[in-house]
Amino acid sequence: MGKPIPGAVPAVFFTRRAYVVEVIDGDTVSVDVDCGFHTRVRMSCRVAKIDAPEKNTIAGKAAKLFLTGMLPAGTELVVDSITIDKYGGRFDAVVWKVSTGENVAEVLMKTGNAKPWVMGKEKKPYAL
Residue 81's domain is classified under what CATH number? Predict the structure, then answer.
């Protein structure tokens, strides 16, 4: 095996099934991640590559309501983990709704409930 490259991060840490526990805000969902062998871990998952309005705003409340309708408790997801979130205690992932095959971030952006996440000083959109 080769040596890891310092600072290199894989594009996807893991792909797992997960089940919605509750929607926290317009881009964060509490999920039970299926680790296999009848083991699940409850974690907070931020939908990657988007920015939803802050939850204390009217638009933020609308985004949460929309996401709650799209992902009611028990909804089966596939999460492609990207990284641990910069605020800690949650992970960022590309999230797919299993029953429809929809990319949750794309739906949130198409419906106006989120916009592309912009990174760094260059203000370049984070590509889906």
Answer: 2.40.50.90
How many CA atoms within 13 Å lie on the side-chain side of 72?
A: 2
Distance between terminal CA atoms of the chain? 31
Report how many domains make up the chain: 1
What single-letter amino acid sits at 70? M
Whether residue 56 is contained in a domain is answered as: yes
Per-residue model confidence as pLDDT tens digits over 50-101? 999 999 999 999 999 999 999 999 999 999 998 887 777 789 999 999 999 9
